Amino acid sequence: MMRLSLRFVIPLMLALGAIAYGVVPLVDDLTLKWFVRDLDMRSKLVTAAAQEPLVELLTAKERDIVRLQRVQAFFGRLLQDERLYALGFCDTTGRLLYKTPALPGEIACRKANAEVEDTGHVLKLPGGPLHVVARPVTLEDQRLGEVLVVHDMSFIERRSADTKEYIVYLFAALGAVVALITVVIAEISFRGWMAGIKALIRGQSLALSLQPKARELRPIARDLEALVHDLDAERRMRDEAQISWRPEALRSILREDLKGDEILIVSNREPYIHVRRDRGIDVRRPASGLVTALEPVMRACSGTWIAHGSGNADREMVDAQDHVMVPPDKPAYRIRRVWLSKEEEAGYYYGFANEGLWPLCHIAHTRPVFRAPDWEHYREINRRFARAVESESRTADPIVLVQDYHLALAPRMIRERLPRATIIAFWHIPWPNPEAFGVCPWRREILEGLLGSSILGFHTQFHCNNFFDTVDRYLEARVDRETFTISYGGEPTEVHRYPISIEWPPAPLAAQPPVAECRARIRREHGLADDVRLGVGVDRLDYTKGILERFAAIERLLELEPQWIGRFAFLQIAAPSRSSIEEYQNLDARVRAAAQHINERFGTPTCQPVVLRIEHHDAAQVYTCYRAADFGFVSSLHDGMNLVAKEFVAARDDERGALILSQFTGAARELPEALIVNPYDTEECAAALGQALAMPPDEQRSRMRSMRRLVQEFNVYRWAGRMLLDAARVRQRRRLASGSKRTAQVVDLRRA
Ligand code: F6P
Q1: pLDDT confidence band for 139 (50 / 70 / 90)
Q2: 312 shares its domain with 444
Q3: Which of 150, 201, 436, 725 has the maximum number of C-beta atoms within 10 A of its C-beta?
Q4: Which atom of ligand 1 sits closest to the CA of residue 353?
Q5: For ligand 1, atom 6, which residue shows the shortest CA distance?
Q6: CATH number at residue 568
């Protein structure tokens, strides 16, 4: 600290020394001028006083010797003034008639200038400087001569030396006082600063800017905070790059970064559904990207997954607390089932979530429908899930992962019940622009609900930006796009991009036969010859998936390239979905009709171009189809991510096969090696189909290799791990902030 202060003090002293050095000659010069002017005045006074007696002496009728004696005596009396050094008298011809003994020989009478008034001058002699001035002596306008008045100036030199000394002392004292004040203030400020910076680096966000005493430092604090944020992000990126994202990585985050904190997942869809069949109870895995992604995470982390018990045998499988351990063959975590009546499911799930929010967020040109009773159910069921979270949590500050658009209100409802929980909400579908979102009659409530989260995640930055814009438009909130934070009514919500993915290596791949066998098996199963080229599409039967557009492209391909008739088939697996909704029933009918139409037009006795299977397939069957195909086709009209694209890539450990991928999926941003298409452009899609069928093996390999590398690296463990690391950071900051708040309260109490 002393050294730091010297950095201020030394330049300050040098500056003051330089100023003193420059000021002394100036002051010297100035005082000399003042003194000379003073001596001029004195000379005038002396001559004025001497005028009369001197004229009398000069004009007296006396002998010269007597006059000389009397004038000199008179001059002698005048010289009693200690400053007056010598006097002389010159006649009008310039002759020195009388002088006192001390008058130096260097001083002579004026001649030529006798008529011009003398202004005086300084004569520098070895004995010291003298001030000399000649003043006229007159009698009734007649000039009698001039008196030479000589003053001793050595006192001026003495005074000037004294002044110089005083100035040096003055500046030295000034320097000392300023230095002392600087050191003391710097010491006090630095202490406060250092405390603030330390707090900031420890993670107490806004610690500095919240200190009222450090108001002037707020801009710097903000910059510093941004810097720490960037460094933090950089460090995390470095750390993450070094992590091999496997289940063990998640477990170690839970152990080390989250200190074994409790994890709860909340979603509408459950990962295992118990269904009654004739031969007993089956366990089914739903066709859901959300489940595909989260199930491996939960297997790695344990904890509780709270979800709607939707299977008709679900109630038979739970204990008294509605719990069931899963996976059935190797229990690792538990499901807590939440029950809904048929009416509630119709309003909350089919109604508000899937007829309202689903088409609202997917720009697929299906009109959203909003009904007040559906909204009431939606609110009530969100509340039920929040209550379930409260009753399931063993601690006051669990980490709660709230999933998807079915539970937009739950984050705030959970926050009200568990204020210290870390709530991470993830929105699995796109977030539209403010205009599109604005048609929702309960837009405000939805936004407020989501902003109950500590962290809110979307698949892409584009969706995050749309969310920022929407909040900006409809709420009085502080939206800070630099720190990705929204502050609304208290707690801040961080909004980040977490692109979802699948587990790597995918579990269903382990039991798969070699690709050649998959190819043969699937062709056999669907009555296709061995050499028929096969494309595959795997979707829920949903209008956002662009299945009709896909079929239109197939039809166009066969029109344009008839050589494929009888030699190419497309296997479309469509899992029935939300079939109580009219729009989905219509789609079902239209998809069937389109397939039939193409088959009638281009089918041969041995090869139907579209093989449509509208039924549930388990993961193993789906992976066999992926491996059997020459290409996969994902033509979503709008999709948050689309994990089918990633699964297709993951299934192809033979590095063969092409992927056609809609530009309107989140996945298209990560997999540019796919053949990216606009699903609305039938010609483009047909051309991509032709390209996929004709793609040379080397090209397939190099594209597939690079896509596989990406999916391997950016797998679902990284997706979950990044969210959990962010949760750990948020929790640490909150702990530190509440620690320092407590300290501040104690200090305040003591002061009071
Ligand atoms: O895309 C959103 C999503 O929740 C996915 O995560 C999932 O694939 C799908 O919808 C499931 O829909 P549902 O639960 O209605 O069958």
Answers
A1: confident
A2: yes
A3: 150
A4: 15
A5: 290
A6: 3.40.50.2000
Closest atom of ligand 1 to CA, residue 290: 6
Expressed in percent and rounded to 5, the helix, strand and coil fractions of the chain are 55, 20, 30
Distance of CA 345 to the CA centre of its chain: 41
CA distance 147 to 91: 9
**545 and 620 within one domain:** yes
Count CA atoms within 13 Å of residue 3 on its CB side: 0
At 288, give phi and psi (nearest 5°): -155, 125
Distance 309 CA to ligand 1 centre (A): 15
Residue 276 C-alpha from the chain's centroid: 52
The CATH number linked to 132 is 3.30.450.20
Same domain, 478 and 547: no
Distance 290 CA to ligand 1 centre (A): 6
pLDDT band (50, 70, 90) for residue 206:
very low
**Ligand 1 geometric centre to CA of 258 (Å):** 29
In percent, the amount of the chain with pLDDT more than 90 equals 64
485 and 544 both lie in a single domain: no
Q: Is residue 451 part of a domain?
A: yes
Distance CA 103, CA 95 (A): 14
Contacts of 724 (CB under 8 A, 6+ apart): 250, 253, 254, 257, 258, 399
| Amino acid in position 661 | L
Kindly report the number of other CB atoms within 10 A of residue 562's CB atom. 10
Q: What is the pLDDT of residues 340-350, one digit of tens each?
A: 999 999 999 99
Same domain, 647 and 523: yes
Atom from ligand 1 closest to the CA of residue 293: 6
Evaluate whether residue 445 is within a structural domain: yes
* 196-210, 475-489, 523-537, 650-664: segment of lowest average pLDDT: 196-210
Nearest Cα residue to atom 9 of ligand 1 = 288
Tell how far the Cα of 464 is from the centroid of ligand 1, in angstroms: 20
Co-location of 266 and 383 in the same domain: yes
Entry pTM: 0.70
How far is Cα 488 from Cα 61, in angstroms, rounded to an integer?
114
**Atom 12 in ligand 1: which residue has the minimum CA distance?**
288
Taking the centre of ligand 1 as the mean of its atom positions, its distance from the CA of residue 405, in whole angstroms, is 9
Q: Which of 113, 142, 159 is the last residue of a domain?
A: 159
Instruction: Give domain status of residue 505, yes or no.
Output: no
Separation between Cα atoms, residue 511 and residue 76, nearest integer Å: 134
Q: How many whole angstroms separate alpha carbon 673 and alpha carbon 653?
A: 16
Q: Which of 120, 136, 159 is the last residue of a domain?
A: 159
Q: Which of 221-235, 264-278, 411-425, 544-558 has the lowest mean pLDDT?
A: 221-235
Q: Residue 406 C-alpha to ligand 1 middle, in angstroms?
A: 10
Quick check: is 679 in a domain?
Answer: yes
Do 304 and 415 lie in one domain? The reply is yes
Which residue range forms the structural domain that includes residue 86? Answer: 2-159
Residue 291 Cα to ligand 1 middle (Å) = 8
**Edge-to-edge, what's the strand order for the sheet holding 658-662?**
610-613, 568-575, 533-540, 631-634, 658-662, 675-677
Which atom number of ligand 1 is nearest to the Cα of residue 428?
A: 2
Write out the two tokens for 242: 């070094």
User: In terms of domains, do 299 and 422 share one?
Assistant: yes
CA distances in angstroms from 213 to 188, 189, 193, 402, 572, listed in the order given: 12, 10, 11, 40, 67
Q: Of all atoms in ligand 1, which is nearest to the CA of residue 268? A: 14
